[in-house]
Batch of 2 targets.
Target 1
Amino acid sequence: MPSQPRALSGIQPTAGSFHLGNYLGAIRQYVALQESHDAFYMVVDLHAITVPQDPAELRVNTRIAAAQLLATGLDPELCTLFVQSHVPEHAQLAWVMNCITGFGEASRMTQFKDKSAKQGADRATVGLFTYPILQVADILLYQANSVPVGEDQRQHVELTRDIATRFNGRFGDTFTVPDPHILKEVAKIYDLQDPSVKMSKSAPTPKGLVNLLDEPKATAKKIKSAVTDADDPAVVRFDRDTKPGVSNLLTILSAMTDTPVADLEKRYEGSMYGPLKTDLAEVMADFCTGFKARTEEYLGDPETLDQILAKGAEKARAVAAETLARTYDRVGFLPAKH
Ligand code: AQP
């Protein structure tokens, strides 16, 4: 058993850049938890193919995702960073988990409903339907105590808890029942143009999406054109219900500068929305400039990057293989003789 509690999370290589929602909602917590946890973080390429991917692009995006994780501050000496498909135990455990998950239970996953609605129900794959169950396997393989994610993933961690508890009850204590690690303030970052929906790479227009690898100037421009609230007088105040646009900007500035929202409200007292937007645009442009440079540095040395991922996969496999062997034994599979 590890001396530190375990953390596990993953991010999909489905775009050429992470967005600000990914960063504030999840990745910043990965970086913090690597200090206090035995942390496993992966680029989840198996999840990526639940929707159509161009193979060459997927390969490129997988390296870009790994480089970005390192650029945010993940340290391969402190955590285990790997690519999901390099550890075959994920797919193997997922099959066992598929066989103890109810069809009705899986049908209640709202992410599937949202994503399949976007694609048209006939085009959605069985993989998209079962992806929460693969996620169950991802988490349970490492006996994770803590799962840093955004609010949209809470239901999947709840499913993981249910299935772990059911498996333990039926076959004997096998899996750690994990807790979601969701920071309330940044659990859901909203689209800059439509602050009623979460920031997402599949938004109908990219205008409200802040991609961390975009040109910093373009990012500053997007922030300056963010939708604010049409109340009069224009007061900078946090209120998600009546002022969703300004509240989103305050949330982002607060998180990026580690300043309480109440202090920001005081700072902008008596001013319109302009100064808030200008300051946030500058903070984001600065952040993105450094982030882009660090990411490009890792991408400029693919050999080292691949070595980090190979080492990570080896460490991950050692843990995953043990859990899979125990699970196979518990369900009654005859051990293979070598
Ligand atoms: N807007 C968000 N606010 C807070 N957290 C967010 N996350 C995603 N969007 C937000 C968190 O980022 C982590 C990685 O997510 P992913 O790899 O599953 O990416 P995603 O959720 O597919 O990202 P998108 O842009 O939202 O994609 P689509 O359009 O496919 O739905 C997760 O922990 C997630 O919670």
Target 2
Amino acid sequence: MKVDVLLGLQWGDEGKGKVVDVLTPDYDVVTRFQGGPNAGHTLEFNGEKYILRSIPSGIFQGGKVNIIGNGVVLDPALFKQEAEALAASGHDLTKTLRISKKAHLILPTHRILDAAYEASKGAGKIGTTGKGIGPTYTDKVSRNGVRVGDILHNFDEKYAAAKAKHEQILRSLNYEYDLTELEKAWLEGIEYLKQFELIDSEHVINNYLKEGKTILAEGAQGTMLDIDFGSYPFVTSSNTICAGACTGLGVAPNRIGEVYGIFKAYCTRVGSGPFPTELKDETGDKICELGHEFGSVTGRRRRCGWVDLVALKYAIMIDGVTKLIMMKSDVLDTFDTIKACVAYKIGGEEVTEFPYEIDDNIEPIYAELPGWKTDMTKMQSEDEFPEEFNAYLTFLEEELGVPIKIVSVGPDREQTIIRYTEE
Ligand code: GDP
Ligand code: IMO
Ligand code: MG
């Protein structure tokens, strides 16, 4: 068997959580492979709303195995909060959720370092989620990290050594901080973690594949936030792309099956950094309002704009996307005209290949299509799609060269339309 991967193709918040939940009945196992509590994945069903940060979105579909893979960075304090809230709402995860021993721990001082580095960047700050993601991955790569498996061996010593290094850096930055509360909650989180099965996830996952079990890997963030291929330096600190599923789970590239690429019918970005199709006008405000575009974790207003096919094609190429999923189509239900950026104008030249430098000098060139002006939120099948919406889908499929397999018309699990397959 193979691992299917679901990835955000834009700057995150495409609706990954919702679709992973919808697809989970087809899988035995759901895994996260990168990122950490910088993610906020929203699911809605039966009138309830859940926001997951470190826990895979496959937990609500009856007893499936969910795994936090080695590529994830885990904050025990935030994990405890998340898991306890789920347990209180009737979702006890201690039997179904397993955690890789090789996942790295976000330390309290990583969170403080994140804030200190941001403060030192001034106006050039990344606008991180403040969860300590960058400093934790930095320690992983510089071989100073503390891993989940370390909880079981010489933990106090390893924690003290890492903390001392961080405190030295913080002193050199003259950064004032108070660790007391953070550390207390964190150490409670470490104890809490011990009731979960801490596993050698690369063995477990490859054994599952041998046994014929089906696995879905759930991406966090999006391809344009990838550390190598995103809008560097305004990116996150992990490989959010398909290849990240190989390193973040320990599965070989030839074990990857379908690659689901998920995008919004428009585009958003939260935090700093370039965004060529951003709309700083009434249309942008209208998308923000209709799409409720506020961060699920931080509450920050998301910047909004038209869909960017130059960036999407790039993401599809890097990820090897085999099937597309278009989200939040309903947000555009009332628009007279829908725009899609088909090329960039840079210094008088038209560019269709995503360039090295993306900055304010890029002028998007748009194709304009008629809006469908129909409420799509109650539609159940593609037979009900308005003609203009079908024309928009055909236009996107021709431009992007990949079929759109699922269309989402609202936040609820039920507001999801699987299109006919012609394989
Ligand atoms: P993720 O991080 O990719 O899982 O996405 P988020 O949960 O951060 O953001 C997506 C937001 O859009 C959430 O509030 C979802 O409930 C909501 N959502 C998902 N799909 C749809 C849709 O098709 N239409 C509308 N209107 N909202 C959606
Ligand atoms: P999900 O999984 C949207 C952004 C931050 C910031 C940059 C770096 O919900 O799609 P970090 O804290 O990772 O060092 O921040 O990345 N960012 C996200 N934006 N959705 C996310 O996750 C994000 N995770 C990080 O806003 O610009
Ligand atoms: Mg999100």
